Fold this protein.
Amino acid sequence: MDLRLKDRVALITGSGQGIGRTIALAFAAEGVRIAVNDVNTKGIDETVSAVRAAGGRAMSAQCDITDLAAVHDMVRKVEAEYGRIDVLVNNAAVLISHEMFLETKPEDCDKEIKVILYGTMNCTRAVLPGMVQRQFGKVINIVTDAARVGQERQCNYSAAKGGVISFTKSIAKEVGRNNINVNAISPGATNSPMRMEMLRQLKENIGEQKAAEREEKVKRAYALRRVGEPDDIANAAVFLSSEPARHITGQILSVNGGFAMLG
Ligand SMILES: NC(=O)c1ccc[n+]([C@@H]2O[C@H](COP(=O)([O-])OP(=O)(O)OC[C@H]3O[C@@H](n4cnc5c(N)ncnc54)[C@H](O)[C@@H]3O)[C@@H](O)[C@H]2O)c1
């Protein structure tokens, strides 16, 4: 299948590590030029180096996506360097609260909603005008099954992602006429640094053996009996950005080993 991605330009938020970095490498392997966004400059440098080491082109696009003015500056910088942005992957997120809702701190809730929901909307606001002008674009929002089926101890995070799901569908309806596809990928548990940190905290709290038992129980909730890897998500992002996926828009694609099966 010819994906027709060569020489496209992708801006990937939160690609200084984890799933975002894997998406950057997967796109680069298809000849896509990458703008690596994150707040973490060390992570950005590592991703840029990894893409270049693999023979691809990458640039740093450092900014905090909760700051709309900074996002506009970042988009101008990427467009000046690469001429345009064809693909926006809204991947950056924070998962701060692991307590029951009433025990969470309002300031943590605020931060989760700002990064996940406003961050996604800010980047979309800044990138879409160029896409509309060129009558071409792909926007991919990374959400979570926690927002689709509910997840205790992740109320703030899943509420923010639920907002992104609704935004995906509504904006897809607005910009479909401009030949812009907007979709979301909904991972189940995926072995990224974010999840590894969660597991580390769990081990600290309940001990190694109980944590291992809990992990086995998690796997049994997945039809394929495995937790996802970052490249499972990256492969879906490559496909949704490609020409063969041109008739898919406004969809929420679970990439979750059969954890939740939604009609
Ligand atoms: N790992 C999982 O199990 C899992 C499951 C479901 C969904 N997801 C989603 O997948 C995506 C990637 O997750 P991950 O596990 O790789 O996470 P991660 O924490 O490893 O990476 C997230 C990146 O976003 C960056 N970031 C945070 N705030 C930012 C901001 N204000 N501006 C710019 N960058 C910022 C971080 O610095 C980090 O590099 C997220 O949207 C996450 O919600 C992950």
The chain has one domain: 9-190+228-255. The mean pLDDT is 97.
